[in-house]
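The methods section describes the discrete structure representation at length, but only in general terms. What matters is that the chain and its backbone geometry are given together, residue for residue. For illustration, here is how one protein appears when written out as sequence plus structure tokens:
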Amino acid sequence: MSSLPIVSITRRETFSSCHRLHSPFLSDEENKKLYGKCNNPNGHGHNYVVLVTVKGPVDPQTGMVMNVHDLKQYMQSAIMEPLDHKNLDQDVAYFKTVVSTTENLAIFIWDQLQKVMAKPNLLHEVKILETEKNHVVYRGGNTYPRKKFNSSNLHSSHHDVSSDSD
């Protein structure tokens, strides 16, 4: 039996969303200092570009790793419907307890794609271009334990957050 060639396919979509970078684990003063203008109480918006890459063997019968039409449908369901023209912090349940950084947005998109894909093992990478200068890449997996929101942890002395400022 011969091995099959491995190929990557990437599809690009764009969506617009707004959010406010604000951690419930920090005081208002700490949030303003850490996130700067991205902590504006009225939020701010982005025209996000998201690139989803699937990777796998080329099926000798179809000549495809995945039907691009299927990938388009998965992205519509996992990205466009829940995120496009939404306030991430108010309209997406996940971000009610998770800071809406681009890093966390990439994790959310990965998790959503995993739920809708017929073959989630083909998902290789989620890349988000938040601005012309800032890009985030997520390839799945949990290397570090994730801290869940707990009101008793508010204003603790150790914080693992990152900014998406310009």
